[in-house]
Amino acid sequence: MDGLHKFVVVSSRLPVDRTEGPDGESEWQPSPGGLVSALEPVMRESGGVWIGWTGDAGPAPGPFEVDGLALVGMGLSAEQVRDYYEGFCNATLWPLYHDVIAPPEFHRRWWDAYVTVNRSFAQAAVAQAAPGATIWVHDYQLQLVPQMVREQRSDVRIGFFNHIPFPGYEIFAQLPWRRQVVLGLLGADLLGFQRRADAVNFLRACRRAAGLATRGAAIRVGDREVRAAAFPISIDAAGLEQIARQETVRKRAAEIRLALDEPDTVLLGIDRLDYTKGIPVRLRAYGELLREGRLGPRVALVQVASPSRERVGAYRVLRDEVEQTVSRINGEYAEVGSTPVQYLHQSYPREEMAALYLAADVMLVTSLRDGMNLVAKEYVACRYDESGALVLSEFTGAADELTGAFLVNPHDIEGLKDAIVRAATISPADARRRMRLMRKRVCEHDVAYWARSFLDTLAHAQDHGLVAVP
Ligand code: G6P
């Protein structure tokens, strides 16, 4: 079964959102993620196709086009949404791979659904790929796809990129299906991870869970050699900076500060409402700083927490905890006309996000564990005047690159409080020096650089022979 496309991207979600048209028909809008902006040029050049889920339970919409981009929509039944998406992906793998911050659940029925859904994605990829095509599979939702494709198509080149951390073996070993997952991934020629530490953890899992020999970054699988290495993902820095420079966006940033009653210091957090992001520790640190008066009287925290995975238990518990903490802080420290925490349980378009980044003096990224954290990079990309400061958890992939940030251990509340105070009282010269350093990194190593370096490395992998060992 050979398809027509020389380049096939397979990811859990399609890079488009469904909206309802005037006559009640589905309409599709491109979702402006970094991944699509990086892959779009390659897709257009090579006549590529993108396979992914629409985000709703229901039948597969099949192949369609949005703005000239070829897409194949996958369908998940209501049971698959429950057992595969909410279950195995987001209540087993997500907490397990994020160092068991929440306890992972292991259910055989969920695993069965994971296998079935991975098989249907693999089938779709096989059907779309032209002879000799390159297939790029993304993230923890689809770890079995590489091997499932390889079993049917020895002519294609397969890459896999893991967007989230890969845990240490002591944690990964809890997974009852650890061997199947490792072997599923090893169907690829090249496996990309965010940090070197993730690749090292994976190499160890190959030895321990599958008994395979590794040498440097190479794993021997029968007569093949697979490579595992770090390719830190990034953002479309130039595109975002362009948005931040727009007159309307700059005006909106000024309006936001005005609406906050012109505080001396605006702190900002922007996260999916996820327990990996460390929102409760951030609120605790801020509440204590208010009590101690260390940030002065004119300070505001804007916390955007966009809704996420709302039917998964741990996310509901987190929402309650965050909302109670916000109310407690506001109850204690608000005055008529000023609210110390502006909590926004909403998602915003890129322009509003850019305005928020411009309005903030200090960006707070306090994740307990995070594969990369693109919000940190987005903040840096928007600060074209080289002002502003970033407080960044050392447990993010971004911490390896953004050395101009105030790095913190988010579990250490006193350390976190000190870092927030230092960032809020930084001298303009020190801020400029730090921001310049971070902007150089983000502008040079943008998402196009990431995609190019992954695909170039994959292109040098041989179809079914050995991949060079560095
Ligand atoms: C993380 C994952 C992505 C995922 C996204 C949103 O960034 O790495 O694969 O798509 O979260 O999560 P959702 O469950 O809404 O797809």
Biggest sheet details: 10 strands, mixed
- DSSP summary: helix tally: 16
What fraction, in percent, of the residue positions are helical?
A: 40-55%
Radius of gyration: 23 Å
Please count the beta strands (DSSP E, at least 2 residues each).
18
Strand order of the largest sheet: 5-6-4-1-7-8-9-12-11-10
What is the molecular shape? globular
Provide an overview of this structure.
- The structure is a single chain.
- By secondary structure, this protein is an alpha/beta fold.
- The protein is built from 16 helices and 18 strands.
- The protein has helices at 34-46, 78-97, 108-128, 145-152, 169-172, 178-185, 196-210, 237-245, 247-259, 279-292, 313-333, 350-359, 374-382, 413-424, 428-444, 447-459; strands spanning 5-13, 16-20, 26-30, 49-57, 62-66, 69-76, 129-138, 157-161, 190-193, 214-215, 218-221, 224-230, 265-272, 299-306, 341-344, 362-365, 389-393, 406-408.
- A 10-stranded mixed sheet has the order 5-6-4-1-7-8-9-12-11-10, sandwiched between helices. Strands 15-14-13-16-17-18 form a 6-stranded parallel sheet, with helices on both faces.
- A hairpin with a 2-residue loop joins strand 10 and strand 11 (218-221).
- The longest helix has 21 residues, at 108-128.
- The radius of gyration is 23 Å and the shape is globular.
- 50% of the residues are buried.
- Mean pLDDT is 95; it is low at 463-470.
- The structure holds 6-O-phosphono-alpha-D-glucopyranose.
- 6-O-phosphono-alpha-D-glucopyranose (G6P) binds next to strand 1.
